[in-house]
Amino acid sequence: MELYVHIPFCVRKCDYCDFLSFPGFGCGADEKHRSLSCSYINALCGELDGVFCGMKETGLKCDTCFIGGGTPSVLELKNTEKLLKTISEGISPIEFTIECNPGTLTEEKLKLYKKYGVNRLSIGLQSADNGILKALGRIHTFEQFLESYRFARSTGIENINIDLISAVPGQTFDNWKETLKAVTDLEPEHISAYSLILEEGTPLYKRYEENPGSLLLPDEDTEREIYHYTGKYLEEKGYHRYEVSNYAKKGFHCRHNTGYWTGEEYIGAGLGAASYLSYKNAVRLKNVSAGTGSENDMFRIKNTENIDDYIVRPSCETEEILNREAQMAEYCILGLRMTEGISVSGFKERYGTDITDRFGDILDKYRQMGLLEEKNDRICFTDKGMDLSNTVLCEFL
Ligand code: SF4
After folding, report:
1. By alpha-carbon position, which residue is closest to atom 8 of ligand 1?
2. Do residue 7 and residue 125 come from a single domain?
3. What is the pLDDT of residues 348-376, one digit of tens each?
4. What is the pairing mode between strands 160-166 and 64-69?
5. Which of 9, 19, 164 to mutate to test the pocket of ligand 1 (most atoms within 8 A of CB)?
């Protein structure tokens, strides 16, 4: 099982962001925001204590913990320590990641992370070009990122991910190449490279609606070119693409996210955090009433997104109950995002039926078109198939 912990605070809101996070936090925060942050951490630690208590009673363990956001590194030292202490008293994850952003990371915070067993950092850089960082509304420069990265290394963090975004306003192919070079020169263990998605309601989306040309977004061909170049360049530099947008040096794939893609159960704590649990564990850990759904169902449960309500009492509600059919489709859709694809025997073991009995038509159709292939018990996309993956995946629904 995996544990996700959400910190919904940022220094300011980036222009492309639609994550559940609020601005005004960090070292310049006023009293109101500081107090909100303390109340939130108290409520979050209360929720975590309850989760850990339920896990102890039933012998459940979490292999990974991911503190994400928002910007977890905006938390003050005392709140950081309270949260990390609570987590480390409840579980001993093999992989323990915290997300951070340049401009919010200090040596003191990094030392606390180390003290409480954090062994992986995920740093949001997005681009090595200061003009692009400004256009995205990021709070930091590339130089500030370098400083954070060096702090992290000197504190002894040996597993670092760097987040990048391509296809952003003003980006050219050459400029993306420079970002990739600057990042790989640092030799992080992991790189995530996503394409920008214009989310409704964000300032960037509004600017796009008003005048699409003004954003100077790369066209579709350049986007494709960037995607292919990224895979090839990173492969040459020793990074293996193991998922559509994720690259790692040998042995450094993200266990936490791999858990999501392989259909493992996870529990989310914090504002708006999602959980994916079996019937038994949904009843034990998220107080789902017994009798809702059936024993073979999986539950998608979401914590409240209202921070005032959360602070009073962290409540949640069931968003979706997945029956066996829905679970099988999701197993294929998520599993095919990974370059190694899905295990044929794993599917049979999990669902007691052959994947070909359930999805034989789709698999045959795309195998014949050269988009899917089967090798050594695994079904995965070919290079051509990866390019058209969205069309194929829709058929499993
Ligand atoms: S730092 Fe991350 S979570 Fe915070 S506003 Fe920017 S993109 Fe959103």
Report:
1. 17
2. yes
3. 999 999 999 999 999 999 999 999 999 99
4. unpaired
5. 19
